[in-house]
Amino acid sequence: MNPLIFGYSMLSLAIILEVFATSFLVKSEQFTKVVPSILVAILYAASFYCLSHTLKVVPVGIAYGIWSGVGILLVTLVGYFWFKQAIDIPAAIGLAFIALGVVIINVFSKAI
């Protein structure tokens, strides 16, 4: 497999695992619920493991920018749809800037 494809596949998996971990963090109720708390630890560890493989082929700044930016966007959607959390206009504008930043990195960066 092409190393770059592998790297971005691992980055995608890292993002998905991080979004699940963060969602269970809410469900852990400040680590007072055992099962969600255990899932948080396992999912974050798995996410960082996948991210570490990404860093073999993608520069850390680029990988972390994509990981955190896409993670923020997905966690916000989970919060909106699953936890019924509101998103106001300033938050939506800020999220749009984050999305734009991720697109700019992926389309225009020559660092990869």
UniProtKB/TrEMBL annotation:
<comment type="similarity">
    <text>Belongs to the drug/metabolite transporter (DMT) superfamily. Small multidrug resistance (SMR) (TC 2.A.7.1) family.</text>
</comment>
<keyword id="KW-0472">Membrane</keyword>
<keyword id="KW-1003">Cell membrane</keyword>
<keyword id="KW-0812">Transmembrane</keyword>
<feature type="transmembrane region" description="Helical">
    <location>
        <begin position="89"/>
        <end position="108"/>
    </location>
</feature>
<keyword id="KW-0813">Transport</keyword>
<dbReference type="InterPro" id="IPR045324">
    <property type="entry name" value="Small_multidrug_res"/>
</dbReference>
<dbReference type="InterPro" id="IPR000390">
    <property type="entry name" value="Small_drug/metabolite_transptr"/>
</dbReference>
<keyword id="KW-1133">Transmembrane helix</keyword>
<feature type="transmembrane region" description="Helical">
    <location>
        <begin position="31"/>
        <end position="51"/>
    </location>
</feature>
<dbReference type="Pfam" id="PF00893">
    <property type="entry name" value="Multi_Drug_Res"/>
</dbReference>
<protein>
    <submittedName>
        <fullName>SMR family transporter</fullName>
    </submittedName>
</protein>
<feature type="transmembrane region" description="Helical">
    <location>
        <begin position="63"/>
        <end position="83"/>
    </location>
</feature>
<dbReference type="InterPro" id="IPR037185">
    <property type="entry name" value="EmrE-like"/>
</dbReference>
